[in-house]
Write a structure and sequence with these properties.
With 135 residues, the chain is α+β, with helices and mostly antiparallel strands. It has one domain (3-110): HIT-like (HIT family, subunit A), CATH 3.30.428.10. The chain has helices at 3-8, 53-74, 122-133, and strands spanning 16-19, 23-27, 37-41, 78-82, 98-103. The chain has a five-stranded antiparallel beta sheet, covered by helices on one side. A hairpin with a 3-residue loop joins strand 1 and strand 2. The chain is globular and about 50 Å long.
């Protein structure tokens, strides 16, 4: 059982900012900046790819609303939405969650992006991904 499931079950308190039948959002206890919020589905799944369409749609509906609310409450104009899948991708709690992290001055998410270049077989890769989305 994850810490997020314990929060959902009421075993651990949190500072709730939003809740509906499918989604819970609350302040992160280790924020990168003021207003750092975690958004979780009530469906217990480790990665985004395992999540039902219903839960994914519910999160998709509420993320923009929460981003606007966080910016209004904190005065931030910039923010990151971060979602990691698997330990190698820096996921610490194995329950799907999105971070909304306001960027204010130097506070927020720091990113070092080491971009590569598009592979020579990009068309084949795109076709393979397209085929897999319909499977």
């Amino acid at each position: 059982m994850t810490i997020f499931q314990k929060i959902l079950d009421g075993e651990i308190p949190c500072h709730r900012v939003y809740e509906d039948d499918h989604v819970l959002a609350f302040l992160d206890v280790s924020p990168l900046s003021r207003g750092h919020v975690l958004v979780i589905p009530k469906e217990a799944r480790a990665t985004l790819g395992e999540l039902s369409d219903q839960s994914a749609a519910a999160i998709g509906r509420v993320l923009p609303r929460l981003c606007r609310a966080i910016c209004a409450a904190t005065g931030a104009t910039d923010y990151n939405v971060l979602q990691n899948n698997g330990s190698a991708a820096h996921q610490a709690v194995m329950h799907v969650h999105f971070h909304i992290i306001p960027r204010m001055n130097e506070q927020g998410l720091g990113i070092n992006w080491s971009a590569g270049s598009l592979e020579k077989d990009a068309a084949e890769l795109a076709a393979s991904i397209t085929t897999a989305t319909t499977a």
